[in-house]
What does this fold into?
Amino acid sequence: MKETKRIISYELAKKLKDAGFPQVFKAGSCVLYKNERYIHTGGGHNGNEGLYVREGHTCCLDEYNKEDSDVDINNFIKNIEDTDLLLLPSLSELIEACGESFYSLDRSNLGWQCSGEKHIVSNFFKTPEESVANLWLKLNEK
It folds into this structure.
């Protein structure tokens, strides 16, 4: 699997979860578990439907399940409670969650900024994901 950088912080992901952002874990979902980033494999490997592999490592379950395997089992987690996981949503998941309330996303020399319903405009952020995540939080304030 290709290693990628964390695009939103743990703190922002936690704010999203606490505010009710859908925690839907599916194939390819990035999650945090004990502050380590894992990718959901999508299951289908020897019945391990809830398997996550540490980002940057190969999902090689045929080797993982062998007794004499040299695959580091610490790179995998499985059968973990969803409540222990924290979703790191992609940009498309964030935009989709905003729904019709999302209007635009723009980049300038100041950073990324997005706008939504009722003229809610986010501050400038380093990544488009941070911008849209903060817009979602504003749109869902109680």
